[in-house]
């Protein structure tokens, strides 16, 4: 559960859970079941914060971490 249902709260939760520096998480995407990739913002996070289970996928590029939440 997120402390605050926004992008900062999501980054903070991922950082705490997986031991990643929050400042290195530079992009968070959501990939829906149909394969559409969406750049997450506060509105999308508020909409999905209590509704859907996700698989978390992490990729690294130039020391920055990209997170993709894949809808199950």
Automatic annotation (TrEMBL):
GRHL1/CP2 C-terminal domain residues are: 1-71
Q: Which GO terms describe its cellular component?
A: nucleus
Q: Which GO terms describe its molecular function?
A: DNA-binding transcription activator activity, RNA polymerase II-specific; RNA polymerase II cis-regulatory region sequence-specific DNA binding
Q: What is the recorded name of this protein?
A: Grainyhead like transcription factor 3
Short name of one Pfam family for this protein?
A: GRHL1_C
């Amino acid at each position: 559960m997120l402390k605050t249902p926004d992008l900062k709260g999501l980054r903070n939760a991922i950082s705490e859970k997986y031991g990643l520096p929050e400042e290195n998480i530079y992009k968070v995407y959501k990939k829906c079941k149909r394969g559409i990739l969406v750049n997450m913002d506060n509105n999308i996070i508020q909409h999905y914060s209590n509704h859907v289970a996700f698989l978390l996928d992490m990729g690294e590029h130039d020391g920055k971490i990209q997170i993709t939440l894949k809808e199950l």
